[in-house]
Amino acid sequence: MPSTRDPRLVIEQLRQLVEAWEVEERIALGTLCALLAIRPRTLHHYCVGHLGISPLQLVLRIRLDRVRHALLIGEGNVTSIAFAHGFTELGHFSGVYRRAFGESPRDTLRWSLGSASAYPQDPEHEPPRASPAT
C-alpha cells in the first residue's frame, strides 16, 4: 500500500535526523527508515523524485556540508576535520569533496585562513557553492 505522507515532510524529517546525528556514528539507511517509519524504497522514491538524489547521497551531502563549515571556520587541519566527521579514507574523501564543491578541502581551508595563494587570480573570490546533487 502506498504511503500517504507528504514527501516534502518526510524529506525534512530525514534532514533533521541526519543533522542531529552524532557525526562519529555511521548512519544506516535501515535505521533512518525505522525512525521515519517508512520503507526504504518509498524513501528512495521521495528523495529521487523531490531532490534528484538518493537518501544516502543526501546523507553524504549533509556530512560534506558539515566538513565544509568546519574548514571555513578553520576548526583544524583537513585530516583532523575529515576524521572528526567520519571520513576515514582521505583519498576518497578528497575526491568526493572536490566533486561536491569544485575545489579540494585544502583549498577551502587555505581560503578560509586568508591565504593569498588560495585564489591568486581573483582576490574577491568566494569558494564555490555546492550543487544540490552529488
Q: How would you sum up this structure, described in words?
A:
The relative contact order is 0.13. The chain is built from seven helices and no strands. It has one domain (7-112): Arc Repressor Mutant, subunit A (Orthogonal Bundle), CATH 1.10.10. The two termini are 31 Å apart. The protein is mostly helical. The model is unreliable at 116-125 (pLDDT under 50). It has helices at 7-20, 29-36, 40-51, 55-72, 78-84, 90-101, 105-112.
Please sum up the structure shown.
The protein has 134 residues and is mostly helical.
The main β sheet shows up as: none
Q: How much strand content do the residues show?
A: under 5%
Secondary-structure arrangement, i.e. CATH architecture: Orthogonal Bundle
Shape: elongated
**Which structural class matches the secondary elements?**
mainly alpha
Poorly predicted runs are 116-125
The ordered string of helix (H) and strand (E) elements is: HHHHHHH
Count up the domains: 1
Give the class-level CATH name: Mainly Alpha
- Estimated helix fraction: 55-70%
What would you give as the CATH superfamily?
Homeodomain-like
Mean pLDDT: 84
Oligomer: single chain
Taking the alpha carbons of the first and last residues, their distance comes to: 31 Å
Which fold does the CATH topology refer to? Arc Repressor Mutant, subunit A
- Radius of gyration over alpha carbons? 17 Å
Query: How many individual helices?
Result: 7
Number of strands: 0
